[in-house]
Description:
nine-stranded mixed β-sheet, UDP-N-acetylmuramoyl-L-alanine:D-glutamate ligase, 479 residues, 3 domains, Udp-n-acetylmuramoylalanyl-d-glutamate--2,6- Diaminopimelate Ligase, Chain: A, domain 1, single chain, 23 strands, 15 helices
Amino acid sequence: MKITLGSGPVTLAELAARCNGRLTNSANRQMPVRQICTDSREVDKNTVFWTLPGKKDDGEAHIAEAVACGCPCVVCTTDLSKQQICAIQTSDRIRALLRLAGSALEAINPQCVAVTGSAGKTTTKEFISAVLSQAKKTFKSPQNHNSLIGLPLSLLEMEPQTEWAVLEMGMNQKGEIKALSELVRPEVAAITNIGKAHIGLLGSQYDILQAKLEIFSGLRPNGIFLLNIDDPFLSASAGKNFRTISLSANGRKADFSAKNIRVEPQKTIFDLTWRGGEETDLEIHLSGKQFVYAALFAYATGIYAGVSPEAIRRGLARANPGGLRQAISVCQGVTIIEDCYNASPESMRAALETLDCFCAQGGRGIAVLGDMLELGVQSERLHFQVGECFAKGKAQLLFTIGKESRQIALGAIANGVPANLVFQNPNPGDLSSLIAALQSTVRQGDVVLIKASRGIAAERVGSALKNFFGKRGQGPCVN
Length: 479
C-alpha cells in the first residue's frame, strides 16, 4: 500500500518526531517526504518505506531492496546506524504508525463516524459518506482499508479542511477495534449487525459482539451510537455515557423506522418515519432489504450532522458501494449479479432473497455460491443451512465452488432440490468445468447470482460469462 500525505510533505525529522521514533544516519533531516509505502517494490526517492511485521514475511527483510531503489529512509525496529542507512527506529512499528495517524487527525480535527459490524460495513460507510458529502467536506476511508494498518495509512491521506471523516473498522481478534476507536475518537459510532463472519477466529457470536462493542472505547462523551434494534445481539447495547439512536427496518418502534419496503431489480424503495416527520419513496440503487439498514444509518447521521432531508434523499440516490458488491450487468437478456466481495451466512441468505426478487419478475434463477471462509468448526453446519435457504427460494439451479460448499449442495438436495439441478466444483483453482456448464445452460431471461468469500475469487465466473456473451457478437453487456 502506498499513500500520499494529504496535508503535504513533512521533513524526515518531523516524521520521526510525530511517530516517536529515533532518526539515525540522516544528513538530510530537513528532506521533505511526500509518500509512505509498506511494499518495498513501490519505493522511490520521495517515499519512506514503513516495514511491517508479518506471519510469513517481515518488511525488514526487504530493506536492502528498498534502499537500492532510492528509498530515502526506512521505518524499522533494527538499529541500522552501523550500516549507514537512514532509518527511523522504533520498538513497535504499528504503534508508531498509529501515533503518526493520530497526529494528522488531531491537526485536521474532523468529526468522525466509525462503522463496524459483521457485514455491510463498507456499504454503510459509502452511504453515510454519500449523504454527508452533499453538505460537508467529507473524507472516507478508501475501499476496505479498515485494519490496524489500513485505517491509519488512510487517515494520513486526509486533506485539511475536512469537516467529517467516515471510517470503517474491521478486526480479526479482540483489541483491534479498541485501538482504532481510541485513535479516531468518533462522534458517531455504528455497528451494522452481529453475524457469524470470523466466528472461526473468535469462537462465538457473543465473542464477536464483545469485540465489536470495543468501538465504545473511543466514542466521545455524549457522542451518538446508532443502534440496529432488529439485531438480537445488539438490541440491549444502549449505554449511559452516550446518546443512543435506534433504527429498525422490521416495523419496530424506533427513532428511525423504515416501512413499506419494496425491493425491485436494481433498486429498493422505502418510506421512513422519524422524529422529524415522514419521508416517502426514498430510493437506493441496490436490490435487497439488507441495504435499507445502510440507508437508515446514513439518514440518521445526516440529520445529526445538520444535512437537510432533501440533501439526504439526494445522497442516498447517488450512493454506490462499487467494487465487487452487487454489480449488476445485463448481457443478451441474461442478468448477472456479481456479489463477490465477501460472504457470510447472513449475507448469503440476503443475496438469495434478492435473487428471489428478480425471479419474481419471471426470470429463472441460477445461484453460483462459493465457500464462506473463517467459519471454523461451524463451517459445515453453516454451509448446509445456506443450502436449505436455497431450497426454500425461487431459484432453480445451483452451482457450488469449493470443498466447504459441498455442504451447500447437500443442504439443497436434502431439502428437495433434484440432484441433477446441482453442479459441484470442489476445486476453486479450476473453474473451467463450472463455467462450461453455465455457458451451456444459461438462456435469455435467466438471472445469475455469483457470491462467495473474497478468497474464492468468484468474479472469474462473471468475467467468463460476460466474455462468452461478448464473443457472440451481439453487443456489449449493459451495467
